[in-house]
Amino acid sequence: MADNDTPLSRRTVLKSTAVAGAAGLAGCTGGGNGSGSDAIELLHAWSSGDGNAAIEALVGGFREEHPDIEFGEDPVNGAARSNLDQVVSNRLQANDPPSTFQTWPGQTLTKFGDAYADIEGDVWTDDLKNNYLAGPKEQAQLDGTYVTVPLNIHRINNLFYNTSVLEEADVDPESLSTPADVVDACEAVSQNTDAVPFAHQTSGSWSTTQLWETILLAEGGIDGYNAFIEGDGDVDQVRSALENVVELSEYYPSDASSISFTEANTMVMEGDAAFIHQGDWAAGAYSGNDEFNYGEDWGQITYPGTSGNYLLNMDSFPYFDNNPSAEATKTFLSYCGTAEAQVLFNKEKGSIPPREDADVSELNTFQQDQYEDFTSSDNQPPSIEHGLAVSPNIKTNISDAFSGFLEENDPDATADALISAFQ
Amino acid sequence: MRKLIARVRNRWSDSDVRTDGGEVSAERSLLRRDSIRSAPFWLPPFLLVGLFVYGAVLWNFVLSLTDFQGLGAPDYSSLDFENYVIAFNGGTPTWSELTVDPVWNSLQNTIILMVVFAVVCLVLGLLLAILVDRNIRFEDTFRTIYLLPMSLSFVVTAKFWLYMYNPQTGLINAAIGLVGIGPVEIVQNPDLKLGAVAFALIWQFSGYAMIVYLAALRGIPTSHFEAARVDGASTVRMYWRVIIPQLRTATVSALVVITVFALKAFDFLFSMYGGYQPGPSADILATRMVREAYANQNWAYGSTIAVILFVMALFIVTPYIYTQYTRGEL
Q1: For chain B, which residues make up each domain, given as ranges?
Q2: Is residue A234 part of a domain?
Q3: Out of B71, B165, B278, whose CB is closest to A92?
Q4: Which of A148, A253, A358, B53 has CB atoms 3.0–4.6 Å from A316's, for a disulfide?
């Protein structure tokens, strides 16, 4: 190309390059500190379904009570749960924490440990301390300091069943008292009916981990369970619980590895399966079905062998140090600690309030029964799979062990891996 | 200083416009050089890529030498290769109370996946390309059908193959059921898991290899085919001795793209197994890296695995770039 006929002058090129560069840089530096100073910024992953309805009810209730306190422009910041932690982590690295976010309490708090601040006195008043049961109260603390406010409780040690399938199989759910009884009941179902005895999914490891932790609680009792989560577990108890899971696995759907939890749960609703072990969010799907009613078409028992225990899975809102809206956040967290707010939230979420003085008459019959179990329970141990009982690193090791268990079904190797997860 | 500016200006204004493409004499060349004069075009993207790609790669390497873990800022004052020792030997690093497993298992899976996937993809792509190239009817339709899976995202294909592998209703088990085998558990079967993942990826990407080969085949003059025919070569011999040797460039460029896809099979595993825990027999470096970095917040160790992955990618890409360079195509 000859220099003289350049269609663009050097100056034009330089100018356009500069403009393009400036635009690019502007794109990089934009955003950031836009929001107003005192607006509450709540990050959560409840962007659809019952979770979304629940958080809207909670925020609606708060706005009614405190019309002067602003929420950030869009309080509903949707993100998948696993991404949410990542978003918060990045914000904390940049020293720009949100007001609060949705997180599991308990040992999950160790992940952002130093970033939280003590809210005893400001939020955790005597009222809260007197009305939360011991289990949830313990989970609200990080090394003895109150840093978060639990909002709801999902229970893990449930066994749901389809009434008509069990009647056909001639199994009385109330008569089951040990994990071995569940295996026998499954055998009866497989002999007497065409239904799958135990609906379960194995494409991901989480359902199996929570099933195993429930059975460990049944076989080892609260002491054995607590010993395990403190890193001092008895390998025989761990193995025996795993062996029980292997026995149960004979009664899973044959395509367990290709289905999701929703599909497994639907099998129970449609009478294609007898039992399912799940957190009580499974009941959320049942209550959406008018043809499938609590007490008539389906029922729930405390997982055999775990009576007196309410195995906890909770969500909570922690308080960050260096809070962008200190006073407003504390007001909001205090509101979340009231029985009224918890009823508003849990009515939609299908879980129960962590306070023992809540008026649950507005909740459905199943929730009321669960609440009664909760308030009369002796122990409220924290769930392993749902992040309360062990720190995130140990939980990764445990999930690793179970992803191997799903492949090999080997109780010995998995028991060793679970014990060494703490080392 | 003023002298210098004057000299530069002098050069700028005095220099001749050379239209014959000849070289400008050395002492006058500085500002007249093509590379300098074209700087407004290449310099901004060069700097941006340098900063955001190579800068990030370098920073990642430096991070892997730190003990960065949890919240806060990395400490660059004490750099060592501890994480690499841990990655290959396992043990308890200074930044953790828990033992950390070495990466051998995921490294092995990554290499198996990469080799099987790449080789089968290329062979299958070549066969398809030869078939489609032989003036068949509905050639365009076939080409589209073979290429279509590549347009799907990993998330879609993972869910799709989860259905395909279903022991009760999946097509794969229905097919092997016809010859009297099965139903077979595939998704959580330690012996078949990695193969099942590779198979699904091959299904998705062999169409890409086909397109690359097809383009190369179209570039070979008809006379080569005719000459081989006149000399009495059979079809197989013609392709083996005359045509395939000419597809070397196509092979190498398809290979690079395909192996890079294999290294990125993370999305597929993530969707298929509902998280970054696909189980020991399908765990690859990418899933391990994400687990260490985002589940455990072992940032430095995650960076170490990323560097290992990067070096593996370099092993693939460097020979390609080097051959391109020696052949003057770069």
Answers
A1: 104-297
A2: yes
A3: B71
A4: A148
Q: How many CB atoms within 10 Å of residue B245?
A: 9
3-state SS, A156-177, equals CCEEEEEHHHHHHHCCCHHHCC
Residue B160 to residue B154: CA distance in whole angstroms: 10
Radius of gyration of chain B (CA): 27
Q: Which residues of A touch B70 (CB under 8 A)?
A: 111, 113
How far apart CA B312 and CA B305 sit, in angstroms, is 11
ipTM for this prediction: 0.80
What confidence category does residue B294 fall into, taking pLDDT thresholds of 50, 70 and 90?
A: confident
Q: CATH code at A170?
A: 3.40.190.10
Collect all residues of chain B within an 8 Å Cβ-Cβ radius of residue A205.
275, 277, 279
pLDDT tens per residue, range A319-351: 998 888 888 899 999 999 999 999 999 988 889
Whether residues A174 and A280 fall in one domain? yes
Determine contact: A3 vs chain B, CB below 8 A: yes
Residue A381's pLDDT is 93
Locate A244 and state its tokens. Answer: 């029980």
Q: Does A95 touch chain B (CB under 8 A)?
A: no
Residues A294 and A238 both lie in one domain: yes
Q: Does residue A237 lie within any of the structural domains?
A: yes
Tell me, yes or no, whether A63 lies in a domain: yes
Predicted structure pTM score: 0.84
Q: Which chain A residues are within 8 Å of B187, Cβ to Cβ?
A: 203, 257-258
Domain encompassing residue A63: 42-155+314-375
Shortest distance, CA A277 to any CA of chain B (angstroms)? 19
Look at B168 and A254 and tell me if their CB atoms are within 8 Å: yes
Q: Is B13 a residue whose pLDDT tops 70?
A: no
Cβ-Cβ contacts under 8 Å, B21 against chain A? none
3-state secondary structure of A423: coil
Which CATH number applies to B104-297?
A: 1.10.3720.10
Same domain, A98 and A134: yes
pLDDT digits (tens, 9 = 90+) for A32-91: 443 445 788 888 888 777 888 888 899 889 989 988 888 875 554 555 666 788 888 888
**Pairing status of strand A273-276 against strand A158-162:** antiparallel
- In this structure, the answer to whether residues A247 and A184 fall within a common structural domain is yes
Q: Is A406 on the interface with B (CB under 8 A)?
A: yes
Domain co-membership, A63 together with A170: no
Instruction: Report the candidate in B152, B17, B23, B91 with the shortest Cα–Cα distance to residue B301.
Output: B91
Chain B, 166-225: which have a CB under 8 Å from a chain A CB?
A: 166-170, 183, 185-190, 193
Distance from CA of B48 to the nearest CA of A (A): 10
Mean of pLDDT values over A397-418? 93
